[in-house]
Amino acid sequence: MNFFDYIKNDAFFKPLTLKYRRVYYDCIQILIDKTKELPVLYESDAKDSITVYLKNAGINK
């Protein structure tokens, strides 16, 4: 099955075309890296990782 057939959402990649595409990409990469460290990535761990990145980048949520 083709990846795009599986997603079935034309807007799935839209954030990667917007002004803050680098931030979106970095957050995705952080979450992927975190899943390699932990056997289970809980929502709280994901939020903490993204919050640290955003604070270090000087971005307010």
Explain this structure.
This protein has helices spanning 3-7, 21-37, 43-56. It is an all-alpha fold. The longest helix has 17 residues, at 21-37. It is flat and about 35 Å long. The relative contact order is 0.11.
List keywords for this structure.
3 helices, 61 residues, mainly alpha, 59% helix
Segments where pLDDT lies below 50 for 5+ residues? none
Using only C-alpha atoms, the radius of gyration works out to: 14 Å
What number is the mean pLDDT? 90
Distance between the termini: 37 Å
Helix content: 55-70%
- Note the total helix count: 3
Report the biggest beta sheet as strand number plus sense, adding barrel if it closes.
none
- Summing up helix and strand content along with how strands pair, one would put the structural category as mainly alpha
Strand content: under 5%
Number of strand elements: 0
What general form does the structure show?
A: flat
- What multimeric state do the chains show? single chain
Order of helices and strands: HHH
Helices and strands in order:
Elements lengths: L2 H5 L13 H17 L5 H14 L5
Helix pairs in contact: 2-3
In short:
This protein is mainly α. It is built from three helices and no strands. The chain starts with a helix and ends in a 5-residue tail after the last helix.
